[in-house]
UniProtKB/TrEMBL annotation:
GO terms for molecular function: GTP binding; GTPase activity; ribosome binding; translation elongation factor activity. It is a peripheral membrane protein. Its EC number is 3.6.5.n1. It comes from Geodia barretti. This is Translation factor GUF1 homolog, mitochondrial. Belongs to the GTP-binding elongation factor family. LepA subfamily. One of its GO terms (biological process) is positive regulation of translation. It is an enzyme of class 3 (hydrolase). Residues 4-186 form the Tr-type G domain. Pfam families: EFG_C, GTP_EFTU, GTP_EFTU_D2, LepA_C. GTP binds at residues 13-20, 79-83, 133-136.
Amino acid sequence: MEQQRIRNFCIIAHIDHGKSTLADRFLEITGTVRPGEMKEQFLDQMDLERERGITIKGKAVTMKHRTPDGVDYQLNLIDTPGHVDFSYEVSRALAACEGALLVVDATQGVEAQTIANTLLALQYDMEMIPVINKVDLPSAEPERVAAEMEQFFGFRRDEVMFVSAKSGIGMQELLNCIVERVPAPKGAADKPFRALVFDSTYDSYKGIIAYVRVADGSMSKHDRLQVMSSGRSVEVIEVGVFSPEPTPIDVLNAGQVGYVATGFKDVQECAVGDTLTNQSNPSTEPLPGYVELKSMVFAGLYPADGEDYTRLRAALEKLKLNDASLSIEPENSGALGFGFRCGFLGLMHLEIVQERLEREYDLALIVTAPSVAYEVLLTNGEVMRVDNPSRLPSPTTISEIREPILGITIVTPNSSGLGDAEQARVVMEYTMPLAEMLADFYNQLKSRTQGYASLDYTFEGYRAAPLVRVDILVNQTPVEALSIISHRDNAVVHGRTLVEKLRSAIPRQMFEVPIQASIGTRIVARETVRAMRKDVLAKCYGGDITRKRKLLEKQKEGKKRMKMVGRVEVPQEAFLSLLKIG
Ligand code: GTP
């Protein structure tokens, strides 16, 4: 396909505004997928994604579209994830397109993520097509939403496309509009080959499959491919496009979106954001890549059953193959045994990883309270990164602790008369510590606005704050995994909350168990789990041995998800209940 007839575009939308449905309808209308084959939400391949209705990894699909004047075009749709945790993935997809459909639900209107993603897209200087979806619904207010799009982004009313991804209204017009408004890719066919890796998967036969957007030149099977960042080279096993299944083709040309099977075994050998070139005629200038997003949220993941450690490690390594933003580091906690300190992009990312481990790998896990990474300036002038509260060095060596700060955007209905009273919705901008966001902020925001507010955030940098470490002791034994770093003013309250929650979650033992919170050597809170009056076996003494065994077995069942802390059995729920320190 000639470059002038290629269009690369993506869809950006707030969650549930209909991105996947729109993609499905495109696939159907362009005949890319025959109606009988249509699985709902083709682009969301992972089960978990389909169930949760969110899109996690960017993917691509190639479609053919014939315009009313009979000309065939190749449309490459690159999928973008909708959730705030994944804005890194959104920016990868954006770098590979010339156009974006900005989809807004006609019954809802502009949301925080719409704003955040639009701002991101504008940085890439791309053609934006405003699309109002779900116009088939009786509660749709397309005119109000069009006015909002004008107000927030400056789109003209006559630029807005009105569609129903469900019923198909306006879909042909939208395809024609993409051909008309989105510019053809600019790359030069006669320059040395350059392609941007925007995603990758692993295939046990073909190795790492790099999803690429070709900027210049072309690449065929058997060409020698070179990774620009490392200089490593390899013979190309296969090139192809997604239509929507991976389909081998002879040659990938400038402007096209497709894949290159590299045979590499390790994702690091051909990382997302890298530029691929041709070894025999290499380009000298790599394409602008992406800013690598560092993990922002950290938590310890431990197998509930210590014997599952090796399985947990294998599972995490496998997940990491497809998820470069997940970081893993072995960790050994006195209380919890062997596990991993993992880094995530946000809470949602953490939840998804946990759920996949439990479901796909059948692992029972204990997840410690999530924390953020701090920058610690030591008195000797060194700066260290601390992503685990228990690793905070001694206070005497610390000159200052800096914490990650977010810039957040909230969009909410204007029920409280904020700002211009005429406006139906208000946009609020704040800065706040990331750690506060972890402490149930999102749930609170949702419940206080009856679910109407939407939220997005960007990382703004580190800022010094009066922070201290609060330790938790169960039966005089410090549980490192439960240590938290807290603002000095809130430390005692946080400590008390933790201790109270733990007290109510730990069942009575044979002996009295003190639960304490301390800052340094100072105990700031204490609760006691009182001793049990009778033990389970007491009534069986001298009795029937089989009955005794049965009881013990029952107990074992219940203990599956227990951890020994010192001599105390702590159920997994005790740890989980601490995830939500409000
Ligand atoms: P994420 O993948 O979570 O980002 O969601 P999404 O934006 O892909 O939304 P999705 O396509 O899953 O649509 C959300 C819901 O809206 C689904 O129940 C769809 O059936 C419904 N929906 C999407 N488009 C339309 C439409 O045009 N009309 C109507 N009535 N419902 C629609």
